[in-house]
Amino acid sequence: MENKENKNSKKAPVVLFVAKEKEPLFSKQNRKLLSDPLDDDNPITVQVLGICSALAITVQLEPAVVMAMAVMAVVTFSNLIVSLLRNLIPNRIRIIVQLVIVAALVILVDQVLKAFAYDVSKQLSVFVGLIITNCIVMGRLEAFALGNGPWKSVLDGIGNSVGYAVILIIVAFFRELLGSGKLFGIEVLGHKGVTMAESTRLYALGYENNGLMLLSPMALILVGIIIWAQRARNRKLIEN
To answer: Where does the chain have alpha helices with state H?
Structure first.
């Protein structure tokens, strides 16, 4: 009787392996790594990081763009390298390892700039070297790359560096345009002559450049205006 009952009883299926679904490269979560730093989690206007370079190298648009590209290269590749080595780096010396990786990348970027954009490299001067101490770089390594995979770390690096670049370029655009009437060194508002008769476009109508825009405090004021506009549009960023 027992044998018949065993035969008639239903056998429960045994699951040996459960296939784990692979996350798409550009899943919703991964896309947020690219989009959030542009608005809700911007490194300059929300995290308040990298302010020094926003003040120092935004007098002209060209060095601001080059600086943004340099930071993007350093943040993205340092995130990738640290993520690949995250399980091999002893916790006690992780900061030293991160600094060595970032310093090596900064030296490489500096040499590339000197080889292909020497004039801009001279304008940026020591600020390229100071990327090593940029809070955005070390912040992303500590907060993200040490705990996430290579692909997510690359996306995080690109997202945060683009968010940084957008603010840098906006500030440099208004400072150069209103401070000297130029963009990328090209006269946009007209030519400022010695006399009104020799001037063209807006300068012929009596327009004068705003010298305050060329001073570092004006960069801080512009960043403050951007922060105010961002919080006025996105109320959830306002602290209680």
So the answer is: 2-8, 28-35, 51-56, 61-85, 94-116, 118-124, 135-143, 150-180, 201-204, 216-233
Secondary structure of 122-189 in HEC code, one letter for each residue: HHHHHHCHHHHHCHHHHHHHHHCHHHCCHHHHHHHHHHHHHHHHHHHHHHHHHHHHHHHCEECCEECC
Residue 52: both structure tokens together: 């020094």
Residue 240 is predicted with a pLDDT of: 64
How do residues 88-132 score in pLDDT, each as one tens digit? Answer: 888 899 999 999 999 999 999 999 988 988 888 888 877 788 788
Amino acid found at 196: M
Residues 6 or more apart from 16 whose CB is under 8 A from it?
A: none
HSE on the CB side for 206, CA within 13 Å?
A: 0
**Dist. CA 113–CA 135, nearest whole Å:** 22
CA 105 to CA 47: how far, in whole Å? 24
Work out the pLDDT band at 137, boundaries 50, 70, 90.
confident
Give the separation between CA 137 and CA 102, rounded to whole angstroms.
8
Distance CA 157, CA 83 (A): 11
pLDDT value at position 20?
53
Using alpha carbons, select from 138, 152, 168, 160 the residue that is nearest to residue 43: 160
Asked if residue 57 lies in contact with residue 136, where contact means CB atoms within 8 angstroms, the answer is no
Conformational region of residue 125, where left means phi above 0, alpha means psi within -120 to 50, and beta covers everything else:
left
Q: Supply the pTM of this predicted model.
A: 0.80
